[in-house]
Every structure is written in structure tokens, then in C-alpha cells.
Amino acid sequence: MNFTRWSARLPGTQRRTAARTDTAVPPDRRGEGSVPMARAGQPADGAPPVPAVDDLPARDVLDRVPALVALVHGPEHRIAYVNDAYASAFGLRPPGAPAREGLPELAELGLLPLLDQVLRSGRPRTLKSRKAVDGRSYTFTCTPVAVTEDGDRDAGVLVFATDVTDHAEAAERLRASERRQRETAVTLQRSLLPQELEQPDDLRVAATYQPGGTEAAVGGDWYDVITLGGGRTALVIGDVMGRGVRAAAVMGQLRTAVRAYARLDLPPHEVLQLLDGLATEIDANQIATCVYAVHDPNEGRLVYASAGHLPILVRDESGTVLRADEPTGPPLGTGGWIHASGSIALGPGSTAVLYTDGLVERRDEDLDEGIASLERALSGATGTPQVVCDRLVRSAGVTADHDDDVAVLVLQHPARKGPQGELFRNAALELLGGVEAAPRARAFASGVLTSWRFPAELHDLGVLATSELVANSLQHGTPPMRLRLRRTDRRLIIEVTDGDDHLPRRRQAEPADESGRGIAIVATIASAWGSRRTPGGGKAVWCEFLLPKD
């Protein structure tokens, strides 16, 4: 193969030759007010002539460039030329051999189909940062070339490989650093989430957390289940805006604060009010969405408050899905907002879903469409809470390379019937006041506990606790008063409500005191006790006893 003829058709050669022909100044026009064209080989100071770039032999130029150059021709890409840099990297290559045999390094990199494409289309193509058999990384640019030889038109491809090893290694170090940071954030995120969900007596709960794909930094999604005592359960889910370790750390602080505030047994909107102030103190530039809900089995409703979070979805026993839209306030950390509580029915046989935006938000569709899709998926989702979790995640198309974190919390209020229903019983008595209220409450409690076939020891403790709670309410509370007994498969719960909102506290009574020992007695004999303010005014004081295991 005549390399000179091939080089004559390298890209740009003919254009530059034509430009010299078209723009050359005639001898008789030189010096007529125009600037004479700088001519190669004729320096004004008498220095030795310097050849023009177009006069340099193409082979001499390519042999001296540090980049790897190979020239192939024909449909089999037969080798026409490799420069010295190419030979140094991969060894000498026999002219005329097809690329599949003579340039195996290109075949291993998958470059031969690209050569075919360049030959067919006549357009250059680039393959970025590929690691070759010599251990170094190259960016390959394939450019079509053509030449006419003996009247026959032949075509080829010029392969130009630039060594980008340093850049590739730097990029790999950066990716490794990002992977380590992401692994750290994921580990922190998972460690701050509950390792095992609390399982309330009256609810069945399951949760799923799916971090974003390897290209997405970990966010601040979290959830929690908190048993409040007296049969009530708090459920929370939230999402800290932002990514990485910082978002996960803020999430951990908020989750810890939620658990502390939940122990105060405050209404949901008051818990969010406290969280809002804390979020501002943690980081004034960091905001988070959150929904906090409380389930009371005696009420059959889910009372909640939302700080800019997505609505809770509830599927009733018939399969109808309801959306708890209102009320909702701005995200935590914005300040200056008074949150409010709302409620939604959660009767036996119902399923509620709390979730973060990663489950329903997509770049190519409206957020309401994503929520509507989740409603349709929930309407047909049956089975255990974990099964429902998995079905909702699958229906939303969440995969390992999802671009956002996903957290889902599912709770079910089972409809218990038959022998299972016998384990969950309720009994209530209105206390009208007067001297007869206390003995009537003791007699009522004794009859109920006997009918529930409790052991004698637990029966006596239950009657004593009832007597002390009722006496405390009669002395310090105001009407209306009510006694409620409740049993589950795990515990006996005794609760007394009245119209006064002053919460009792346990104190050490002096020997001469005639009162002040009732709450201390209850705290001593019961497994747990507590008190809370009730909506509309008043309070509830409760205690509970763990049932003996069979």
C-alpha cells in the first residue's frame, strides 16, 4: 500500500491545498497596499527555510506523535500502517493482515464493530476511556479516510488512541471515594432506623427501606413505631431534605427526638410543634417533612398531624382506599406555623400506609398521578403487612438502581373473630360520683376480671389498681368520669378518665400524709402506668399488667 497516496486523502489535506490555490496573491499584485502572504521557507530575517505543515510527510508526523495511530482499509480492516507509539504499546503489526487477526487488542476492546460503523457511515466515532491489554487506558477516535489508487476507490479508517490512564485512574479513585462515602451513609442510615419494629397488641406492622441506586446519594428517610402504653401506638415517617451523611445524621437526631416527645403522650400536632423548633436549632438550612400519627384501639381512628408530608392512605375492609389529605402544615424547620391534628377511621380489617416521596415521585409524571397509582395498588393489596409492603414497592417500579430513597410503613388493624376475638375484650363503666362510686367500681372490676378468667393473683391486683385510680379521680378530678377495662392477648389495661386536665405525678408521701399514696401503689404493682390529656379537655390515667405466658 502506498502510504503517500493514503496520506493525500487524510481529513483536511485537500481543503488546505485548495485554500492555498484559491488565495495565492499573483506576483503582479504583491506590494499594492496588501500585506504579503507569509510564505513557508522564506523567512524575512534570512533564517533557514522552514517547511510548511502541508509539505511535511504525513508518515514522519504520525511516527513522532505520542498518541497511538493505526490505519486500516477495506471491509476486513486490513492493516496499512501503525506508528511507533502503537508498536511500542502492542508490538509490531504485519501490514495487510485483517484487524481481527493482526490487531487483537482492538478486537478485545470491542472496537471492530465501531470500525464497521465508521466505514459504512463515513462519520467519525469515539470510544472513551477503555482499558487495553497493556494495562493502560485509551480514548479511541476512529475517522474515515479515502484514497483513489489505480482508478479504484478504496476506503479505510484512521484509529487515533490517546492515553488517558492518569485521568481514568483519578476518576476511579473519585468513584471509589464516592462509593465509600455512600456505604458510610447507608450504614449510618440503617443503624439509625429501628433494627426491629415494635409490635403493638392491636396492630400488625411492617416496614421497608430501600436506599437509592449507586448513582444516588443516600437521603434522610426514616420511620418508627412507638408503643405509648394503655394500648395506644404512635407511628411516624419522615424525610430529611438533602443527601449524604449530613441528611442521615439530621434524620437520626429527629428520630431520637420523636421518641422522647412521644413518651410525653402529647397530641400529634404538639409533637410536630416541638419537632419544628428542634429542626431549626439543628440546622436552620435543613428542612424535613414528617407525619406523626397515634392509634387508639378504643376509638377506632388514626389521629395524625402532617408537616408537609404525603397523605396517609387507608384501605378499609371492603377495599375502598381513603386519602387523609387535611390538615397539613409546612415542613419542619420553617417555623412560625401552628400545626393541627386530623383523624381518619381505622377500624378492624383496615390497612394504613405511610410512605416517603421516593415511592410515588417520578420525573416524568405529576406527583398526584404517583399517589393515585399507589391507591390503585393498595386497593388490591392483601396479605400480611410485609406482603403489602413488598407489593407496593414492586408496583411502583422501585429497583436496586432507583434514583431516590424509599421508606414504606404498613399497619393493619386485624378483624379478630372466634377464639382470637375472645382474647380482645372491653368493658366500661360510667362513674357518677359520690361515696358509692368507689365500691361500685371495685365490684364491676372484680366481676369483669372473673368473667375473663384471670388468675386469682392478677384478679386481686387488677381490683386494687382500679380502686386506687378511681379514688384518685374522685378526689382530684371532675365529672364526667369513666372506668374502662381492656384485655389483649398480652396484657390487662385499666384506664380512668375525668374532666380535669391536671396530670397526676408520683411522689413520696410523708408518714403523716393522709393521701398521695395511690399513684405510688399503682406504679409499684403494675407493669407500667401513665397519664395524658384527652381531646376537648380532661385526662386519662392508666396502668397495665402483663398476662402470664401459657
Descriptive report:
It is a single chain. Helix 9 packs antiparallel against helix 10 and helix 15 packs antiparallel against helix 16. The N terminus is likely disordered. The chain is α+β, with helices and mostly antiparallel strands. The relative contact order is 0.07. A hairpin with a 2-residue loop joins strand 4 and strand 5. Strands 2-1-5-4-3 form a 5-stranded antiparallel β-sheet. Strands 6-15-14-11-12 form a 5-stranded antiparallel β-sheet, covered by helices on one side. A 5-stranded antiparallel β-sheet has the order 7-8-9-10-13, with helices on one face. The chain is elongated and about 125 Å long.
Topology (SSEs and partners):
Elements: H1 3-8, H2 13-23, H3 58-64, E1 68-73, E2 78-82, H4 84-90, H5 99-102, H6 104-108, H7 112-121, E3 125-131, E4 137-149, E5 152-163, H8 165-192, E6 204-210, E7 220-229, E8 232-240, H9 244-262, H10 268-282, E9 288-296, E10 301-307, E11 312-315, E12 321-324, E13 342-345, E14 350-355, H11 367-379, H12 385-395, E15 406-413, H13 419-422, E16 425-431, H14 437-451, H15 456-476, E17 481-487, E18 491-498, H16 518-525, E19 528-533, E20 539-546
Antiparallel strand pairs: 1-2, 1-5, 3-4, 4-5, 6-15, 7-8, 8-9, 9-10, 10-13, 11-12, 11-14, 14-15, 16-17, 17-18, 18-20, 19-20
Helix pairs in contact: 8-9, 9-10, 11-12, 14-15, 15-16
What is the helix tally?
Answer: 16
Stretches with pLDDT under 50, minimum 5 residues: 1-41
Class of secondary structure makeup: alpha+beta
Q: Which band does the percent of strand residues land in?
A: 25-35%
Secondary structure tally: strands: 20
Record the strand order, biggest sheet: 2-1-5-4-3
Give the distance, in angstroms, between the N- and C-terminal Cα atoms: 95 Å
Radius of gyration: 40 Å
Largest sheet data: 5 strands, antiparallel
Query: How confident is the prediction overall: mean pLDDT?
Result: 84
Query: Could you estimate the helical fraction of the residues in percent?
Result: 25-40%
Shape: elongated
